[in-house]
Amino acid sequence: LMRAGQSIPSAGSHSPTPQLMAEAHPDKLKTLFYTSPHGKFWYSPGAASTGWFFDVINFGFADILVDDWKAFYASKGKDDRGGFAAQCNDRYVTFGNCDTFLDAQDFAADPVVKELGLFNPDDLKRDRDAAMCNVYGRFFQYLGNKVKAELPDKKLALLIYYGSKCASLDPRWKLPDNVELFVCDFRLPSKILNPKERRGIERLFDEWYEACGGRPIWKAWLYGSRNDPFGRALLPEFAAEVPKALGSKLGRGGLFYDHIGSEELWHFFYSAYALWKIQWNPQVDVDAVIETMFTDLYGTEAGAWICRFHRELKEAYRKSVVAGTDIDARLPVGLLADLEGYLAKAKACLQPDSVEMKRFKLFADWWPKAF
Hints:
- By secondary structure, the protein is of the alpha/beta class.
- It contains 15 helices and five strands.
- It is elongated and about 70 Å long.
- It starts with 17 loop residues before the first helix and ends with a helix.
């Protein structure tokens, strides 16, 4: 867990499981899940994660959740009504919203929202995802105080994600001191070197820092690339820029890097290794770590060609995506031809049946499809 950049114990991710909550409380579905003023009910039996939405406007849901947590602990985990075992432990209880995003038209006309002024169109000027910031700020404040009163030995770990991504700027909804935040931002680390995006990232964390009364954000959730093979292989190496950018606003809970599936991880083992080194020392020279590894694995001659391959590819990717405006890599065709040549020259340095050749194939097999 520590090498993978998670806190010990794990907390602050997706919890509770909506299906299990629905099964545990079939008579309270309208309290658990949201119904819009237009009558849409976000209850989705059979769905995995999307289509559900916990009713974070209704404090009755928070009361049920706290009662279920209390039953979970009183039974030593045997009475688990929400799949709590994965994200609740002796230090933390966890709340993380469902994989569903509500637009303003889905909740702005809600009577509670209108009465309390929880929807402020000006919030959308600072971030397109900020529509529900006051709704969640109010809910998090209530839930945190409820946990403090009824589970005083636990902290409340919150997944800050989707509709809850942005902090409330309304002073009514400051968070209690038993709340810890796990903040997700899809721009991390893929846009961390883009000046405009970096300012937006820093502002997001600054606002949560203020909402917490000047306490650091506990953990940051970083994302790999789902579809771009260059990003899948290279983005972990930029993770060190995140604590450098956020400084004292980021606490020591860790950087969780979401590879978005890890089935090909072995092909870019070098960047995963660098990512884990970064957890211990964000100032580490990532390129030096990787080039030392390549020399050790492939020998001086072949290793030099693989180091050159990696260096030139990473620099082009940095300019195109991480410091640029592209979503996926846009690399010059001439560069790809050069990179293929470097791989061919590295291969020519190795004996066909050697362990170095086996290691080379593990590295090189990733790139033909990417090119």
